[in-house]
Structure formats: structure tokens, C-alpha cells
Design goal:
The chain has 143 residues and is an all-alpha fold. Helix 1 packs antiparallel against helix 2 and helix 2 runs antiparallel to helix 3. It starts with a helix and ends in an 11-residue tail after the last helix.
């Protein structure tokens, strides 16, 4: 084998090895982003339950959504945060988005609660019934 052919083979093997490292690195980055998004979500939900921590809740939940967009549980929590802030329009936007991205029975129940606040009772009943359609939903009595 001549010198040029050997260099070409070495170059191709090196590129293949480096390509594998980049793919593994990207996967690890995705895992890290997932873990960070989960941590920010938990911090945000925890802050939602504490007096005076609504700004912290927004900060953490928005960061979670930035790291891993369109996670139904994060969107549901953001909808609830907007509800607590009194912005029913934004709250509804986030509940609808959470449902669009696979929100579970709890999201339908929470959205029904918002619709009750808005005195849109027929829509609220429809959303509550969607929550009740899930036999595994543990809060059937709330729906």
C-alpha cells in the first residue's frame, strides 16, 4: 500500500471515530438537559405551593420549558402559575398547549377548573368528563 492510501485510510478511520464521539456527546447532552429540565420543573412546582414564591415558580418552570420544550406536565404547571397570577387568557393558552402535547387526565381536570372560573360551564363539564374517562386518574372525586 502506498503512503497516500495509508494516510487516506487513517483519515477516514479517524473521522469515523470522531463522528461516534460527537453522537455520544450529543446523547449525553440530551440526557443532561432532561435531568436539568426535571430539576427545574420540580423546583418550580415546589415554589408554586409556597406563599410569595410565584416569581421563582415562573423562573424555574420557564427554564424547564426552555431546556425541554412542550412537556405536558411543565405546560400544565405554567398554566396553573398564570391562573394564580390572575391571567386567565395565558392560563388557558398553556392548558390547551399541554393538552395538545399529551396532557393527562389531571390537565383536563385543571383546565375544567379554569373554565369554571370563566363561567364556561359546558366546556368545563366536557373537560372534567375527559378526566373521568381515564380510569387510572386518582382524583376522580375532584373531576
Amino acid at each position: 500500500m502506498n503512503n497516500i492510501a495509508q494516510r487516506l485510510i487513517i483519515l477516514l478511520l479517524s473521522a469515523a471515530l470522531l463522528g461516534g464521539c460527537v453522537t455520544e456527546s450529543k446523547r449525553m447532552d440530551a440526557d443532561k438537559r432532561q435531568k436539568l429540565a426535571d430539576i427545574h420543573y420540580r423546583l418550580g412546582v415546589d415554589a408554586l405551593g409556597k406563599q410569595g414564591m410565584l416569581p421563582k415558580a415562573f423562573k424555574e418552570l420557564l427554564r424547564s420549558d426552555e431546556l425541554r420544550p412542550n412537556q405536558p406536565q411543565v405546560l400544565d404547571a405554567l398554566a396553573y402559575a398564570w391562573l394564580l397570577r390572575g391571567d386567565f387568557k395565558k392560563s388557558e393558552q398553556f392548558y390547551r398547549k399541554a393538552i395538545r402535547y399529551g396532557g393527562a387526565a389531571a390537565t383536563h381536570n385543571n383546565y375544567a377548573n379554569l373554565l369554571n372560573h370563566l363561567k364556561r360551564y359546558a366546556e368545563a363539564e366536557a373537560e372534567a368528563r375527559k378526566a373521568l374517562d381515564d380510569p387510572t386518574y386518582p382524583n376522580q372525586d375532584l373531576a
